[in-house]
Amino acid sequence: MPVYLDNNATTSMPAEVLDVMLPYLTTTIGNPSSVHRYGRFSRQAIDDARVQVAALVNAEPSQVVFTSGGTEANNLAISGSCKKWHNAALAIAATEHSSVIEPARLQALDNTVLDMIDVNAQGQVTVAALKQVLHDNTRLISVMLANNETGVIQDLQPLLNIAQQHNIWFHTDASQAAGKIEVDLKQLPVQLLTLSSHKLYGPRGVGALIIDKNIEIDPIIVGGGQEKNMRSGTENIAAIVGFGKAAELAKQALQSRVELLSQMQSQLEAGLTQIASVKIFAKDEKRLPNTTLFAIDGIEGETLLMQLDKKGFAVSSGSACHSSKVRASHVLQAMGIDDLTGSGAIRVSLGIENNSAEVDGFLSAINEILETLRPNLSLNVS
Ligand SMILES: Cc1ncc(COP(=O)(O)O)c(C=O)c1O
Predict the structure, then answer these.
(1) Are 265 and 347 in a shared domain?
(2) With DSSP H G I counted as helix, E B as strand and the rest as coil, what are the percentages for the chain, rounded to 5?
């Protein structure tokens, strides 16, 4: 089996998660909206999962709105807020995930002014950059907690302070952060927070938006009024139950997961820095313990990715292909990285099933590839 090093794309699902889901895919029927006992049983399962998901981020269960994933939660946060206002302005970081950028662009076609907040060379939004884009009518700021490509963890508190001073709502996409670092809504009381189950060893196709009790946003999917009118549609009970279990495990195991991932990340980055002309993006910034985005001078990311795939290592490239020209991703561009450097980007995102031997194997594979691609470039790292 190839070694999977692409855990920011999606994670595996442990047996404990599948086990709690199976009854809802097989023997258990009942629409949670039905009043009979089958319905009540399903409703209870969803409410139990709501408690588990809320606990992961220290929120109240009543704040949790289950969605079909992080994408929908981000759309709900942005569009559901903007739908409430007229002639308002919205500020989002330039490095946001496309599921924040695209709904924000759609709102900008309507009656919302969209301001992009610059990031610095390390991928951080500074207070000065935020202040630069604020208007009297700015109603919502959206800055992600951890970036999916670079792993950079945003220092949100100073930005939230500004938002609070100006009475502006704050949304953060914590899809990549939750389960890898502590996320505590009592410490960081943002109004809207996005979660995605499959980034934390839960099933794909389910997520949540956590909504502050003191605000009201409009739904973007209307119909039967499920999720207290915030998200209509018969609930995906099995996925929600699995998400709940994954959230519970993530909370229980956070410390040990962080230690495991950090050790492997250090080993990986120590090995990479021995290879001539390797650049690790945002190396000295606070980053997720599992994410390393790097480029090797003169080697295109896609080429390296394919060679690694042949050698049995699954990683992701951090570049974007536009009309067959390979460019730096929008995240790296925002950090001021040129297309040549950015097109070499490779993302390794470690997971809890990886081990030190696999990291060693990965470093050896890189070295072997470099020996064939650029005979004078590599050092022996194993
Ligand atoms: C930062 C971030 N936000 C949102 C999403 C979308 O989540 P989902 O796949 O659950 O729709 C992703 C997934 O790649 C992500 O990395």
Answers:
(1) yes
(2) 40, 20, 40
Judgement on whether residues 212 and 267 belong to the same structural domain of the protein: no
Secondary structure class of 26 (helix, strand, coil):
coil
Provide the pLDDT for residue 208: 99
Residues 292 and 183 in one domain: no
Give me the DSSP letters along 354-371: --HHHHHHHHHHHHHHHH
State whether 230 and 266 are in the same domain: no
**Residue where a domain terminates, one of 214, 234, 250:** 250
208 and 328 assigned to the same domain: no
70 C-beta closer than 6 A to ligand 1: yes
Confidence label for 376 from pLDDT (cuts 50, 70 and 90): low
pLDDT digits (tens, 9 = 90+) for 202-230: 999 999 999 999 999 999 999 999 999 99
The pLDDT of residue 382 is 39
Say yes or no: CB of residue 196 within 6 Å of ligand 1.
yes
Q: Tell me the C-alpha to C-alpha distance, in Å, between residue 354 and each of 24, 200, 314.
A: 30, 14, 12
232: domain range? 15-250
Identify the residue whose C-alpha is closest to ligand 1 atom 8: 70
- Point out the domain boundary residue: 250, 268, 292: 250
One-letter amino acid for residue 93 of the chain? A
Give the mean pLDDT of 78-82. 97
382 assigned to some structural domain: no
Would you please indicate which residues are annotated as catalytic (active-site) residues?
Answer: 321
Q: Which of 98, 175, 293 to mutate to test the pocket of ligand 1 (most atoms within 8 A of CB)?
A: 175
User: What whole-number distance in Å separates Cα of residue 310 and Cα of residue 190?
Assistant: 44
- CB of 207 within 6 A of ligand 1: the answer is yes
CATH code, domain carrying 323: 3.90.1150.10
Indicate whether 104 pLDDT > 70: yes
* Token representation of residue 58: 């220290």
The answer as to whether 381 is a domain residue is no
Q: Do 190 and 328 fall within a single domain?
A: no
Tell me the pLDDT tens digit for each residue of 124-154: 999 999 999 999 999 999 999 999 999 999 9
**What is the reported pTM?**
0.96
Residues 263-312 have pLDDT tens digits of 999 999 999 999 978 999 999 999 999 999 999 999 999 999 999 999 99
Distance between CA atoms of 195 and 53, rounded to whole angstroms?
Answer: 9
Q: Are residues 221 and 127 in the same domain?
A: yes
